[in-house]
Specification:
Order of helices and strands: HHHHHHHHHHHHH
Largest sheet: none
Shape: globular
Structural class: mainly alpha
Mean pLDDT: 87
Number of strands: 0
Number of helices: 13
Radius of gyration: 21 Å
Low-confidence stretches: 256-279
Distance between the termini: 15 Å
Length: 320
C-alpha cells in the first residue's frame, strides 16, 4: 500500500499540482501564528509546549482516521487516505514553476526576469547578480526544497504511523522556519525547540538524500565534498545536501566561508595561513545554465532510485 500510495500521489500531482498557497496550508500557517501568540512568553519551554501541542493536534487525527479505517477493514478507504496525505505533504511541484521559469529566462538571455523570479522564490536581494550566481542560488534552493518536500516525506511515510509521520515531518519543518526565520523571531528562545526538533527528525533523511544523490551522480566527488566540507555550514543539513548534490553534478555550491579564489577557509581567519589550499578547494566548476538541467536530471534519478528501492521493499513484504 505504501508504494502505491506514493506512486498515485506523484501521478496526481503531475496532473494537478497543489499550489503552495492553498487553503489547507494557509490554515496551518494561521494555526502556527496563533500558537506562537498564545504560548510565546519568552521562554524556551513555552516553545516546546507549543510545538508538541501543534504537532499532536495534526498527527493524532491523521493517525486515528488511518487506523480506524484499517480496524474496520476498509482497505480501499485507508489507501485513499494515504494518497491524500502524501499528496498534501509531498509538494514535488509546489515550487517547480519558479525553477522552470528561471531556467527559461536564462536560456532566453533575460537576466532581469530571472533575478526577479529568484528574489520572489528565495526572498533574497538579487539586484546586480550575474547569471552564474543566479544559477547557483536556483540550484541550491531546488536541492534543499526537493529534499524537504519529497525525500524527507518519503522516509517518514515509511514509518509505522505512515501518514501521521509524514504530517509530523512537514509540520516540524515549517515550524522550524516559521518560529525562527522571520525578523521578529530571530534569536528568540521560543523557536529553539522547533529548530532542534527538526534537526533530529531530519538527521537520517538528509543523509539518505545525500547518499541517493551520490549513487545517481558522481559518487566519488559527492562523498569527498560531503565528508570534507559539509560541516562548515552553520546549517549542517543544508551543508550535507549542497556538498553531496554539488559533488554529484560536478558543480561547486554554497559559500560557507569562501574567499575570492573559491578556497574554503574556516571562520577563524587567524588560521588561514596554516591551511593546505589544495585540499581546501571544493570539487567542481562554477554553476552555469547547464547546471539547472543537471539538477533536474539528478532529482529525477534520485526519485526513481527511491521508488525502485520502495518497490523492492514492498515486493519483499508482499511475497513474505
Amino acid at each position: 500500500m505504501t508504494f502505491l500510495s506514493i506512486l498515485c500521489a506523484l501521478l496526481i500531482e503531475q496532473l494537478k499540482p497543489l499550489r503552495a498557497d492553498n487553503m489547507i496550508y494557509a490554515e496551518i500557517k494561521s494555526f502556527a501564528m496563533r500558537m506562537e501568540s498564545w504560548f510565546n512568553a519568552g521562554d524556551a519551554s513555552h516553545g516546546r509546549l507549543g510545538w508538541i501541542l501543534m504537532v499532536a493536534a495534526l498527527m493524532v487525527p491523521t493517525a486515528f482516521i488511518y487506523w480506524t479505517l484499517l480496524h474496520f477493514n476498509l482497505v480501499f478507504a485507508a489507501f485513499a487516505w494515504n494518497v491524500l496525505i502524501v499528496y498534501l505533504t509531498l509538494g514535488f511541484r509546489h515550487y517547480s514553476h519558479y525553477f522552470t521559469s528561471i531556467q527559461m529566462a536564462l536560456n532566453a538571455g533575460d537576466e532581469p526576469t530571472a533575478r526577479a523570479l529568484l528574489a520572489e522564490w528565495t526572498r533574497v536581494d538579487t539586484a546586480g547578480m550575474e547569471s552564474t550566481e543566479i544559477c547557483r542560488l536556483a540550484v541550491e534552493k531546488s536541492l534543499v526544497t526537493t529534499h524537504r518536500n519529497v525525500f524527507g516525506v518519503f522516509f517518514w511515510f515509511l514509518m509505522p504511523l505512515g501518514p501521521a509521520c509524514a504530517v509530523m515531518y512537514r509540520v516540524s519543518e515549517y515550524l522550524a522556519r516559521a518560529w525562527n526565520e522571520p525578523d521578529h523571531m530571530r534569536g528568540e528562545a521560543f523557536g529553539q525547540f522547533a529548530a532542534r526538533a527538526f534537526y533530529w527528525i531530519d538527521w537520517l533523511p538528509v543523509r539518505l538524500t545525500a547518499v541517493a544523490f551520490a549513487v545517481v551522480g558522481n559518487f566519488e566527488d559527492a562523498i569527498y565534498a560531503w565528508r570534507n566540507f559539509a560541516h562548515r555550514w552553520a546549517d549542517e543539513a543544508k551543508g550535507i545536501i549542497l556538498t553531496a548534490g554539488g559533488g554529484a553534478m560536478g558543480v561547486r555550491l554554497g559559500t560557507p566561508y569562501e574567499n575570492a579564489s573559491g578556497v574554503i577557509i574556516p571562520a577563524d581567519a587567524a588560521t588561514v595561513d596554516s591551511l593546505d589550499t589544495e585540499a581546501e578547494v571544493l570539487p567542481g566548476e562554477e554553476p552555469t545554465i547547464r547546471a539547472l538541467q543537471s539538477t533536474v536530471g539528478l532529482v529525477w534519478r534520485a526519485l526513481l532510485l527511491w521508488m525502485m528501492l520502495l518497490l523492492l521493499l514492498s515486493s519483499a513484504v508482499w511475497l513474505g
